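Q: How do we represent a protein-ligand complex in a form that can be generated token by token?
A: Start from the inputs.
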Amino acid sequence: MVKVLMVCLGNICRSPLAEGILKSKVNLNEVTIDSAGTAAYHVGNLPDPRSIAVAKKHGIDITTQRARKFTVKDFDSFDFIYAMDQNNFDDILKLSRNKEDKKKVLLILNEVRPFQNNSVPDPYYGGDDGFENVYQMLNKACAEIASKL
Ligand code: 4NP
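Then emit the structure tokens for the protein with 4-nitrophenyl phosphate bound:
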């Protein structure tokens, strides 16, 4: 079983979408996928209604998800930890204990444009078009990830 964790700041906008999109592209008997946030602001909450809506528009239900905070134990539980942006990446690395932990942490958009270190923009304070944009970026990245799993 390959285990993949998607991480953003609040675990209500970007990483729940990444979780839902990747789940739609893989055999869930072979791959475990979860998501988490580096901050605890929204722990226990449903994804943002705008993420729920854009997922639904593309045929994906993310309403069973609840936000949780990333913990150091996640380094033991997951093989690949995809950060949505550079801040998330840095915050996860700060919690790493050794080289093995560090090797697991990747920037998700490097799957589409290797070594460019691009970030998925935080759509929280913007409009609905920001969520569609995030969906499209994550859809491409997750297609790459799924093709390699
Ligand atoms: P996310 O978006 O990291 O993609 O879930 C955010 C959600 C909430 C906040 C910031 C970003 N916030 O400041 O509450």
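The longest helix spans residues 128-148. The CA atoms of residues 31 and 147 lie 12 Å apart.
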